[in-house]
Amino acid sequence: MAPLAPRSGDAIFASVERVNAELFTLTYGAIVRQLLTDLEEVEEVNKQLDQMGYNIGIRLVDEFLAKSNVSRCTDFKETAEVIAKVGFKMFLGVTASVSNWDADGTCCSIILEDNPLVDFVELPDTCQGLYYCNVLSGVIRGALEMVSMKTEVTWVRDMLRGDDAFELQVKLLKQVPEEYPYKDDE
Amino acid sequence: MGREVSESCVDSLLTEMVSSYCDRFYANKPELAARRIEAIGFQVGHQLSERYTMERPRFSDNLEAIKFICKDFWSELFKKQIDNLKTNHKGTFVLQDNRFRWLARMSIDPSSEDGDLSQDNSAPVTENKAAQATSMHLYFPCGIIRGALSNLGIPCAVSADISSLPACSFVVRIKA
């Protein structure tokens, strides 16, 4: 029998190499700031942050699978729980929760009340359209694509815009069946 | 103990930042990419040194400030101190980290002729992609050191030298 998926990432987070979060937070902030200067358009910055996240996600999923010891998720519901409880904890040291499932179990919200990306951050009025944490939605999209799930990830709530939490809506668009380079009967 | 994140968060963010600037935004202008990456580092160093010196008295001279970078500042970032500090007593300091963490997982072709790069955009145009990629990664820590010292009132230029890998030396030239 396959080992049970861990219910939380606490033990994994305790065992990985960790660094001072200030360095991470301030570096991300400096990158966003430099992108705003270089790209000028807030929309373009959103797009590039998402792209950066996607590129990070497609690589990070390997580390996640190697270290988390999770077995194959039976459905998208389990996948979302694993991202929230194990994935966020293992990398960012915080736990997210999952809610707002739709009837057919293909769309849910991942809710984050504590987010190290935004420590020390306040958005000036000139950045109203900015999705500051867009790297996170990109990471989730990229990581899920590597395990055969095409998703669309959008922000529903954002504390930097005055909401009471960060809420990401993750919608499963299609599950791409894995293709093997051989047939079963060969 | 303050808040922590996994080291791979920082590693992957830095890798992606460097490749975004070098391969996407300024693909044909490595000197511009380098300047932007250094500017991001400068910003980070500036803010970090502000935070880490909040409860300290002013440094009495440049050497005291450099020692702070070698010990406390480096320990906060890399959980180790700079291994060796040299100076010519004329405003040039060489800070050597015998195993610089951000290079530890990078493979570098040892045949690359000269690992020297300087932040005033005179980096040698090297044919070797790996060496160029590595030097791009060093603009960020160079920027951090320059930003940290600038926040302490010490204007300087910082370059990196990786000719004796796996050690990495940062050369700080204080502007008179």
UniProtKB/TrEMBL annotation, chain A:
UniProt keyword annotation of Membrane present: no
Subcellular location: Endoplasmic reticulum; Golgi apparatus, cis-Golgi network
First and last residue of the signal peptide: none
Pfam family, one: TRAPP
Major place of residence: endoplasmic reticulum
GO BP terms in the entry: Golgi vesicle transport
GO cellular component: endoplasmic reticulum; Golgi apparatus; TRAPP complex
Domain of life of the source: Eukaryota
Keywords: Endoplasmic reticulum, ER-Golgi transport, Golgi apparatus, Transport
Matching InterPro entries: Bet3 (IPR016721), NO_sig/Golgi_transp_ligand-bd (IPR024096), TRAPP_component (IPR007194)
Family classification: Belongs to the TRAPP small subunits family. BET3 subfamily.
Functional summary from the UniProt entry: May play a role in vesicular transport from endoplasmic reticulum to Golgi.
UniProt subunit comment: Homodimer.
Protein name: Trafficking protein particle complex subunit
TrEMBL record, chain B:
Domain of life: Eukaryota
UniProt GO cellular component terms: cis-Golgi network; trans-Golgi network; TRAPP complex
GO BP terms: endoplasmic reticulum to Golgi vesicle-mediated transport
InterPro entries found in the cross-reference section: NO_sig/Golgi_transp_ligand-bd, TRAPP_component, TRAPPC6/Trs33
Entry's family note: Belongs to the TRAPP small subunits family. BET3 subfamily.
Protein name: Trafficking protein particle complex subunit 6B
